[in-house]
Amino acid sequence: MRGMTTAIALLVSLAAALFGSSTGARAQDNYPSRPIHIIVPCPAGGIVDIVARAVTEQVGRDWKQTVVVEARPGGNSNIGTAAVARSEPDGYTWLVTGPAVLVNPGLYKDAGWSAMKDFKCVGLAVWNQSVALVHPSMPAKTIGEFVELARAKPGQFNFGNPGTGSSIDLSAQKLFQVAGITLTNVGYKGQPQALIDLMTNLMHFEIVSLELAVPHIKAGSVKPLAVFTNKRVADLPEVPTIAEAGFAEAAYVPWYGIYVAAATPVPLLAKINAAINKALLNPDVQRQLAVANIPGKPMSLDELAALMKTDQEKLTAVVKTAGMALQ
Fold first, then answer.
1. How many CB atoms lie within 10 A of CB 248?
2. What is the pLDDT tens value at each position of the chain, 327 positions in all?
3. Has this prediction a pTM greater than 0.70?
4. Contact, 263 vs 89, CB < 8 A?
5. How far apart are CA 106 and CA 327, in angstroms?
6. For the chain, which domains are there?
7. CA distance 205 to 178
8. Torsion angle, CA of 180/184/187/190, rounded to 10 degrees?
9. Where are the alpha helices (H) located in 180-291, listed in sequence order?
10. Chain centroid to CA 189: how far?
11. How many Å apart are CA 231 and CA 177, to the nearest integer?
């Protein structure tokens, strides 16, 4: 009798396992069968929000499924990022973010995730192009001339920093390391206020996203020294790239990726990646990104994993060399 009971229990367990397996397979086959939740760990209306809406809403249209974009700022993007790391790995919760996902675990004791263990990057959204700016009264006409001034007066020029560990901060810190200069860091909560203070000559040097900077450059409110791009920008044809200006080692162009929880099944990762790549090739999406000077590039899951690993190592080294304190 006992043996029969054991046999029945084993059969029930096997049936449950098979049922669960088939249910999971059907769920993946039917994906997506409900709305996709996109978390942007930054304030609404910024570069990351633009990326999230341009790319993911096109994915939603292609899938004929609702996409809900939620701005969840706080903790230098830690709050929203940690929420996705803890989310159900079913492909229905996505994170759109920049380098913070890679560097914040090294900056914050309680960031709440490990970039390489808790996330899979499923799509490269865009490259965040930026430009080095000074006030028009600054005697330097090139980035090289500014570097010479800064070397002669270490710590006497202010750098308007829109956020510790942000893509702008990391670009600036890399430049400072390569150029061998020291500027006084002045912290801000985002780029807009920092740019206002540069225009009023309260700040001496900043790196600003092209979308935000170009109108003020054309108005003559700020002076561009070099662009952090792979090639010259159509809106600023006379401004050299940072590499052309003689600082090729500082030519870091941050990127914004789309991430899901690491345990998400491989078939879903592949399906999401294909959908994002398709969206990035959509003419309407390309126009939106071009207007904001944030070009996108389709990439495979393997390419994204390699880029994620390379940048995590590169940016961790920048943070360590810059002596950014653990918070």
1. 11
2. 555 555 555 555 555 555 554 445 555 789 999 999 999 998 777 778 888 899 999 999 999 999 999 999 888 889 999 999 999 999 999 999 999 999 999 888 888 899 999 999 999 877 888 999 999 999 999 999 999 999 999 999 999 998 888 889 999 999 999 999 999 999 988 888 999 999 999 999 999 999 899 999 999 999 999 999 889 999 999 999 999 999 999 988 888 999 999 999 999 999 999 999 999 999 999 998 888 888 888 999 999 999 999 999 998 888 888 877 656
3. yes
4. yes
5. 9
6. 34-127+254-322 (3.40.190.150), 130-250 (3.40.190.10)
7. 16
8. -50
9. 191-199, 210-218, 266-280, 283-291
10. 17
11. 22
Structure-token match 């996705």, residue found: 84
- What would the DSSP string read from start to end of 222-281? SEEEEEESSS--TT-TTSPBTTTTT-GGG----EEEEEEETTS-HHHHHHHHHHHHHHHT
Q: Are the CB atoms for 311 and 127 separated by under 8 Å?
A: no
Q: Extract the tokens encoding 43.
A: 């304030």
At 129, which amino acid appears? Q
Cβ atoms of residues 210 and 127 within 8 Å: no
- Dist. CA 79–CA 137, nearest whole Å: 40
How many Å apart are CA 107 and CA 118, to the nearest integer?
17
Distances 148 to 194, 246, 251, 313 between C-alpha atoms, Å = 23, 13, 19, 30
Amino acid at residue number 22: S
